[in-house]
Amino acid sequence: MKKKKKFFDDDWWKDLIVAVTATTISIILTFGTARLVERHQRNNDRRMTAMMVISNIESFARNMEDMEKRLARRDSIATWLITLGEEDIDLLPGDLLGDMLTDVMMLETIQYDKTAETIFSSNTDTWRNLGNYRFVENVGTCFSVMKWIESYWNGLVTEQIETFDRIIKTPDAFEGKNNIEKMLRDKAVRLKLMLLHNSREWFMNNTAEIRRINSENMQLFNISEQQVKAFTDARQYELQTEESSHRELFPRLELDSLSSIQPYRQLLDSLRQASRKH
User: How many domains, in total, are found in the chain?
Assistant: First the structure.
């Protein structure tokens, strides 16, 4: 008896099963790969966001270090100026004293790039997607400290300018033959000159604290100091031309902090000897 042929034979079912299995695997691989790519991109975005914020804080710390180095030289000059007696002020050339006093008194303000802070603070999705509360807390602390430093220091610079301006605007109210002599004999001016040393320590201590917090930020995202340095160097290089045109607004004495006053000491000694002979 002839066997009845099946409508769907065994080979058809095998082909169907293979096709369905292949399609299923293809779908799983497609969606799985897409999710892996998406996750990888999301991790890269988190890391880049963290890098930008860390670099922003690093740039501010560098600005503070640069300011402290400039204050080191000014501190040496200021310390020498306030030790001058009245007879020394009379002996030294007025233009020399004026140049030195101008170099010391014209302190720069300090600013930092608030772009990263604005993006980080205004968009809750940014810090929420980072998925690291400790990092968010550290960054918030750094931005708060940076904002306070900027406000406090710039306020001191304004006060210093006002201290000198009051002599320039009302010279008759102060003792001395000229404005330079009036300034060097004024108690308020001398106090401002003495405070330069404390300002150096203030910058050093605050820079150390910001770097300590930022070092923890790097560890939280497994970012090395070398990577932050390279990233920050690249960012600052782009701004180098623009910044260099504004960096030195006033003439500087091209001497380091240890030797700044040595030529002026020698000049004063020679002037004293000449004065005694007469």
Answer: 1
Query: Domain containing 197: what range?
Result: 63-269
Model confidence, pTM: 0.71
Q: Are 232 and 62 in contact (CB under 8 A)?
A: yes
Quick one: which of 64, 57, 62, 66 has its CA closest to 223?
Answer: 57
Distance of alpha carbon 25 from alpha carbon 85, whole angstroms: 91
278 lies in some domain: no
Task: Kindly state whether residue 42 falls inside one of the protein's structural domains.
Answer: no
Q: What percent of the chain has a predicted confidence (pLDDT) above 90?
A: 19
Phi, psi of 267 (to 5 degrees): -65, -45
Q: What is the 3-state secondary structure (H, E, C) of 8-25?
A: CCHHHHHHHHHHHHHHHH
CA dist., res. 143 & res. 147, Å (int): 6
**234 in a structural domain:** yes
Give Cα 234 distance to the centre of its chain.
15
Residue 239 within any structural domain of the chain: yes
